[in-house]
User: Which sequence fits this backbone?
């Protein structure tokens, strides 16, 4: 039967089903009707278990997704040969756990937990990944399941490491100490809240994306001694400059240290901090003058730079656009982005005036510049508040997919 001629599965069955209706459907072996029956919440557990046992793949998938399916049917389907059956079950099982009350029978609870544990060991990464996303915020999951998933491949472990409330500081420190992959550090660095002891272990690794994520995490408690050590290492790590300057818990020593090497725009942000003593303010003022003098003699960041000439010479790059953004030179930025992204200047202005970080990020991607440049534009040109900023993924990568970025550009008429 052609797809356009098929009725919606819900239309195959009457709104009210009698026992005789159900028996007729089961005896007729009508595949579509069985699938429709498996989606119903008003059929008996025995019928759903029968469909989980004898139904075709579509019916078994429907039972796996059905919240009304009995626990023993769920456990059976956790071993199903069809991958999509187990995927549907993984999506559902986490939603059942919070509803298991103390009054539920021990057998029901044990079966549900056993199903969860089986899915956590599933051979298919996609099943484990979906399960991890569904249970990442739950505190009613067996801890051994969480610890297993936290040591899985990146797509499975990442949501658990970043969100699970069941991972203690000791667990996190152990994972950081034994993990061979960078993603574990980055995910832990993003946790909210994050204790000073865990923050210190993340910082000690001196991994650029991880420390950048830690500094950008307003929920991370970082000891001043730890921040001082990061500031000492930040001279050659430009990715740390902005998130360091934006920290509210910098010591006077760290503030003075940063003023020795960050840009004039970031020194200005340091000078705007509350609670600075007069001696520190004077120190920042002096550093500001020194930095401005240095920047004014640099032909690529001077006010009179010929952007078109730089573009033709192949020197219109990340460094130039970043410095222009930090200086808040909107029109120079518009010209640079127009040349690099091959987008009209009026469109660039509309994107900058949109107040949204996503189209600007997409524009920077189209211009083949770094995510760091996109973040600087959001901060220094658009002046977005913290809640509106779109930070980098893992400290360096664009956080949107290419399809998402093309969609945001297309909204402003940018195609190709």
Assistant:
């Amino acid at each position: 039967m052609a797809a356009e001629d098929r009725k919606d599965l819900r239309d195959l069955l009457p709104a009210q089903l009698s026992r005789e209706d159900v028996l007729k459907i089961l005896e007729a072996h009508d595949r579509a009707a069985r699938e429709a029956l498996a989606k119903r919440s008003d059929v008996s557990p025995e019928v759903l278990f029968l469909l989980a046992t004898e139904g075709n793949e579509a019916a078994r998938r429907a039972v796996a997704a059905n919240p009304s399916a009995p626990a023993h049917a769920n456990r059976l389907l956790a071993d199903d040969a069809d991958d999509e059956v187990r995927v549907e079950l993984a999506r559902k099982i986490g939603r059942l756990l919070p509803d298991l009350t103390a009054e539920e029978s021990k057998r029901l609870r044990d079966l549900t937990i056993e199903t969860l544990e089986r899915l956590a060991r599933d051979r298919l990464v996609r099943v484990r990944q979906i399960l991890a996303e569904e249970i990442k915020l739950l505190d009613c999951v067996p801890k051994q399941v969480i610890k297993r998933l936290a040591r899985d491949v990146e797509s499975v472990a990442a949501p658990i490491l970043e969100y699970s409330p069941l991972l203690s500081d000791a667990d996190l420190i152990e994972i950081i100490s034994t993990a061979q992959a960078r993603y574990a550090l980055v995910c832990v660095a993003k946790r909210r809240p994050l204790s000073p002891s865990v923050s210190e272990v993340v910082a000690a690794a001196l991994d650029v994306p991880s420390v950048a994520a830690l500094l950008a995490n307003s929920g991370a408690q970082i000891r001043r001694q730890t921040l001082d050590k990061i500031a000492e290492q930040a001279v050659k790590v430009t990715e740390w400059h902005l998130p360091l300057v934006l920290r509210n818990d910098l010591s006077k020593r760290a503030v003075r240290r940063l003023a020795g090497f960050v840009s004039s725009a970031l020194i200005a942000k340091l000078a705007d901090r509350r609670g600075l003593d007069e001696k520190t303010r004077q120190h920042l003022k002096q550093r500001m003058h020194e930095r401005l003098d240095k920047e004014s003699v640099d032909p690529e960041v001077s006010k009179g730079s010929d952007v078109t000439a730089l573009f033709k010479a192949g020197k219109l790059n990340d460094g130039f656009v970043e410095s222009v953004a930090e200086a808040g030179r909107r029109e120079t930025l518009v010209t640079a982005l127009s040349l690099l992204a091959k987008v009209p200047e009026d469109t660039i202005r509309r994107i900058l005036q949109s107040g949204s970080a996503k189209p600007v990020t997409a524009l920077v991607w189209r211009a083949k510049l770094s995510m760091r440049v996109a973040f600087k534009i959001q901060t220094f040109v658009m002046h977005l508040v913290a809640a509106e900023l779109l930070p980098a993924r893992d400290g360096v990568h664009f956080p949107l997919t290419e399809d998402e970025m093309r969609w945001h550009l297309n909204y402003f008429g940018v195609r190709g």
